[in-house]
Fold these 4 entries.
Entry 1:
Amino acid sequence: MSWINRVRNAIPFIAKKEGTAETLWHKCPSCHEMVFIKEWEENLSVCPRCDHHDRIGPAERFEQILDAGFILLPTPQVQEDPLKFRDSKKYPDRIRAARQSTGDQDALINARGAIDDVPLVLGVQNFAFMGGSMGMGVGAAFIQGVNDAIAHECPYVILTAAGGARMQEGILSLMQMPRATVAIRKLHAAGLPYIVVLTDPTTGGVTASYAMLGDVQISEPNALIGFAGQRVIESTIREKLPEGFQRAEYLRDHGMIDMVVHRRDLRDTLARVIGYLMPATAN
């Protein structure tokens, strides 16, 4: 222990380190303004200065969208290191670190609940868990969510956030794309809606599969949505892409998605859309 810490501990009227300015303020990653943590949280992790929608995890999403009393579905168990993959770290070590930092078992978590007493199953991808990457665990969780929705005769709604397929699982991660597509067809065969909410960022194989197959496509403002990166596309077609390319508003204006909805309005919008698609169960 340094001498200054010994002095600090010995003098009772010196404030402890807890409660420093770092714990009271949040720096917006977009406009770089400092915002009170309490104000940031009360505004649903949206910057009150520039309206930037920060990335949030499943726990916050479930609390913001679902009625009280929702039930978390158990995380499906899959083989965790099928290829014995290792780059700079072992794959199991990366999974372990992601679980410790997020508190989630994998990048997609499902909950069964309701919005204004109208039942649904809600899936949320967590970008903080290895970039929300799509591996066998995510594929199994997606199918779990669809099957649970079919069993309870309600819609399946998913909030996507992903950097694409999980490279540590190779072709096994890419196989989740057709698996998810088949699951969506089963949901439609049961006469149930599939609604997608695209959040920042949604890219790669997730965009190429279940993220763009919704009956209704909703997005949060300014979300990055695409398959390949902008620089890769520009180098391939050898043209400069338009301003705002791959952002939610551009995609809406060009017919790729149906609407862009502010986070504070997302719950009410989902309730209204579900009411249109499931009028028999809506209030």
Entry 2:
Amino acid sequence: MTAEEARAAFLVWLAAERRASPATLRAYEGDLARFFAFLADHLGGLPDRAGLGGLALADLRAFLAQRAAAGASNATRARELAAIRTFFRYLARTGGPDCPALKLLATPKVRRPAPRALTVAETDRLVDEAETLTDEPWIAARDAALVLLLYGCGLRSAEALALRRRDAPLPGDDAPLRVRGKGAKEREVPVLPVVREGVARYLALCPHPLVPDSPLFRGARGGPLNDRLLRRAMERARRRLGLPERATPHSLRHSFATHLLASGADLRVIQALLGHASLSTTQRYTAVDETRLFEVWRAAHPRAKGA
């Protein structure tokens, strides 16, 4: 089998077995295409599947060096290396080869920025006034319901937009919301009464027929609401309410986690609510909280000026 055939089989496996999203598939395809193009030039030809296992540490370091020289950031190179490692793990599980040199290669260090959460006051204003930001009542109710879901349940935009009519959390039902997150992993999220009431208001006003399997949130013409329209609605809210640029749909998820942490919620609980596979991802929110504590100290302490 050629290396290209192995790559094609790997992408099929990602889609069918791992249920990777289209965006993830595109990223893996591009990362491996760049790696294979480098190998073909660096080695004078692309090795076959068996030959891939003989790559040396120097070959892999040369690839990362070339990518750095081309302007790829540490984050980009770390992602590309993760794609290569996943590809070789797939090869090892399907008859080989493994690549021992990969185990010796250090991942480029990436400093992940702290999540950009809104303040409690900014979030309160958005939640309170979301239903006043457009003249069309049902669209205003839709936008308000989405804001409540994103902030009240900590959902990703894609998770909220993927909800079906049968998933709608409504008053009188205390059942948690079942959410399908990244990697098709499901989790259960508790739903506040105010969120259920907001969704019920939207459903009562929505002029489009909603059968159980249809998308819960609709665009103005009745089609499924997409992320671009959601971001446009948030841009409109920023302008009308004077909110900062960091006020995006995803910032509401960050605000959910940050405000829970500031109120004393356990980090493991926040991890489960957000659907993070790793606690280290959730721990980024501690940096946000510590930063805010320092800002409060600087503003309030009489000896803090100039510190």
Entry 3:
Amino acid sequence: MTAVRFQVAALSAALALCTAMSSPALAQKKYDSGASDTEIKLGNIMPYSGPASAYAVIGEAEAAYFNKINAEGGINGRKIKFLSYDDAYSPPKTVEQARKLVESDGVLLIFGSLGTSTNSAIRKYMNEKKVPQLFVASGASKWNDPKQFPWTMGWQPNYASEARIYAKYIMKEKPDAKIGVLYQNDDFGKDYLKGLKDGLGAKASMIVLEESYDTSEPAIDDHVVKLKAAGADVFISITTPKFAAQAIKKAAEINWHPVRIISNVSASVGGVIEPAGFEISQGILSATYIKDASDPQWNADDGMKKFYNFIAQYNPKANKLDAGVAFGYAAAQTMVKVLQMCGDDLTRENVMKQAASMKDFAPDLLLPGITINTAPDNFAPIEQLQMMRFKGRQWELFGDIISSDLNH
């Protein structure tokens, strides 16, 4: 009996030793800078001041969403530490803040930083450092370039695709249009303009005037006056919120009533339409991929109910009608999904691997039928939009959901 007991004990000890040797390999936790057993450190850069400060609500909504996740126990037991800095929409300041986040704060990644010119200024640096520049808050098509920039990925539909949708709409509904374009004089504006011209193709001559403005200008009134004088009967406003509201007001002031199209980034009811004035905004066209919190059709929607509860509990000062708040919520939800997919392998390489393998993910606030899909050769998470028209105090969706193949 004693010998048998000894053999069993020896066998048990050997098995325990084997298990001890193999377990770490099976369940090994992998971390890069910014991740640990207890914490995931995310960086973010937002224009909390300056000409694009209307977008500050995005960063505030993201911070509130991560607070919600932390209150619910975090991600696989880890709390998110969200470091969000102001760059005043100034590229040199963006570079400074990115270096601080990566080199001093040691973040795992930079998430959801806003702006085309600002993110362009740090893209080379982020890729050289091999730090994810994930879910950039800008629709520039350049973020979908996994071969050249494997550490940078966008989130929203790209501007060129959106502009091509407007071109198709104009050619169908107003084939003899005289188009006047007001665009921001940077990568953001130029990307839209190129998409519009590509969409119009041989009919690009329908554009009678292109007026650019700089974000340093206090007002864009003179540009709007010029567009009216050029005889434009379609006005495409490729502008950020402050200037979009100014353009709506100025057109009304000079009694100019063209077909008006505004870019999705400025389609916010609370951030643009309401400040400009509901009465003078009737009939404006745009396109979207996110549910509008001002639209009662979503009142019984489960995703919208979750959003309302989130605002009430974690972001009570937010204007739920501001599209930027919904954007921040949905983008943060996508970031959380990727971190959950990473499990205990919180390396920068695995973050990008998971971000590039999303299949039919539907954040609470994306329109029904629109989902997030990525692949190693496709860094464009959202590629669908639906046209909408402003009526009363809200946007009304019309037509089908339109998919945009970025290669055509």
Entry 4:
Amino acid sequence: MFTKPADRRASRPARRRALPLVPLTAVALAGTLGLTACGSGSAGSGGRTKVVAGFYPMAWLAQKIGGDHVKVQTLTKPGAEPHDLELTPRQIADVGSADLTLYVKGVQPAVDDAVAKRAKGKSFDAVSAVKTLPARDLGEEGEGHHTDYDPHVWVDPGRMAAIAKGVGDHLAKADSRNAADYRTRTDALVKQLNDLDTAFQTGLKTCKRKTVVTSHAAFGYLADHYGLTQVPIAGVDPNAEPSPKRLAQLADEVRKTGATTVFTETLVSPKVAQTLAREAGVKTAVLDPVEGVKPGSSDDYLSVLRRDLDILRPALECS
């Protein structure tokens, strides 16, 4: 009989807190800072194109494609869960003053709002570059969607290649002087992503099992691309709390599918997934949705997904 598991958010701040009231003088200062730092080669960017990224995958693309021509600022701190982000007045001003803001609409509502108000015509939404999948709504406590699609588009390297092309095009438009370099670097990165896509296709082509049980519905695009079935504990929102009834149903489903592993994540508390694994009599392993790289890590998007592939293959008994 399931009881409600301990808080799975691992001391993270509550979702979607109201921003504190800011004195008018602070708002005025933020607006002034935004006005004095606009345009390519703006103040503090050393003559480079100023790019603001919502969180790690978009920052990684900007740096790989932009190279020394760009100065990249990431709104989400390294190692922090991006879904929880609230913006400071300074960060909102940075979105307004950037030459280009890169984001994934639906992941970070605060960033979506800042872009809509401050960065129209100077932004790129990764979702616009790919065909989306519907959001998984499990009807659980705390689950709230801001879109009717699943926003985790970057987890599939095939789709990430299309997103990379969009980033390259927008950088070339924002900084036409270096357009040729952006296109060259984009082509090189797209080749790396296509090679990784091929590795996933080959590595997951012949597997005894096809069911991937995950902490939250972050791997829908990867599952869709490579012929797998994702069974998420929580929906698109990692903070949603599954009920004891939902966990009992999941345990039955794990047993019926013959899944051997419940996958936890790097930036989300593993407690609920561990509870499910114990009840179903299976093991756990870490599958990384590449939402952030922890400080001091030598990992990047490519190495994290390669490791995910290495973890998936034995769990799914792939030959």
